[in-house]
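Title: [Solved] Post-GPI attachment to proteins factor 3 3D structure

Original question kept below for reference.
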Amino acid sequence: MKVLIVSGVLLLITSSLASKGDNSNEYNGCYHICHFNNCTSNMGIATYKSSQSLSERILQWNCDDECKYYCMWRTTQIFMDKGLDVPQFFGKPRATQC
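Solution (posted by the thread starter after getting help):
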């Protein structure tokens, strides 16, 4: 019983930590398609690695990171096209305008 309660509390905490952007249907759909198409097969990974810059290799930027980055900007554009506020991603606060 205690395990069930603790699991429920942890689920609530982790779901509340997700930001609006990376929790959106637009982002999740994009990410899953990108990851499946580019990061799960040997061919997709080889294609990604062959186009990777030296700085990306030094920073250990990987296919998963690339999908997250691509989908963050794609989702941002979708929100802007709909006239919605740009959402926060990955717990990062939105930049304030000066």
